[in-house]
Amino acid sequence: MINKYIWFDIGYTLLYQQREKIYAQYLKEHHVEIPIQKIEEAYHYADKLFMREYPGVLGKKANLFYPWYLGVVNHYLQLAFDLERQNRFIQERIQETVPYWAPFSFTKDVLHTLKQDGYRLGIISNWDKSARRLLDHYELSDYFDHIIISSEVGAEKPSKYIFELAFKRGETKSEDSIYVGDNYYDDVVGSKKVGLKTLLINRFGYKGIEELQHPHVVESINKLPSLLKTIHV
After folding, report:
1. pLDDT, tens digit, for every residue of 124-175?
2. H helical segments located in 9-81
3. How open is the CA angle 62-45-122, to the nearest 5 degrees?
4. Residue 233's closest CA among 171, 191, 190, 172?
5. Residue of 190, 56, 169 lying closest to 122 (CA atoms)
6. What residues form DSSP beta bridges with 218?
7. Terminus of the chain with fewer CB atoms < 10 Å: N or C?
8. Using the 8-state DSSP alphabet, how is residue 204 labeled?
9. In this structure, are residues 189 and 183 in contact, taking their beta carbons and an 8 Å threshold?
């Protein structure tokens, strides 16, 4: 039996937002055609910019930042729209898309394989009280031995407290654990505070994180089971 605990982030590690399709709908209404991959890259760059320059903002309510965020997406695509109208359109479509978050096509298979390989699995995530409902909705909860959600424990990454709490509940320690997440400034920085090594998810290679020197970057968790057999993290 492998004595390893793999801790996961949720957003853009296990689940993704159905935002690019909604953005593409807005473009269609304005007779603009852009390949969906280009839209995905624009959102990716906007995510990384906000993670780097405005930590914590992406977890706030949409009315506090989303028009500003959309402006960045538009900029990467060399487009210009009335941000108030565009934001209103997109927020309305988001409300109609339930659930707005969905698992990647490979999420369940990867978790199943890791459990079969003998790993213990857990979640450490900055999320509101909807986290467990989403995990239950997609029948993901049972894969995890422990689920640590910031809104439930009163601490957020990159605070070391939330990681220490996870170790305590999981009856494990940093040298027997690995963390997997997509936000360097929450996930890697926070993990380092407790000596926890991290696999950083970045969907487009090193795009958007060119300034970072983190040695363990992967595009998704899809190849995580095989990767763990060949590298020492």
Report:
1. 999 999 999 999 999 999 999 999 999 999 999 999 999 999 999 999 999 9
2. 19-29, 36-53, 66-76
3. 70
4. 191
5. 169
6. 201
7. N
8. T
9. no
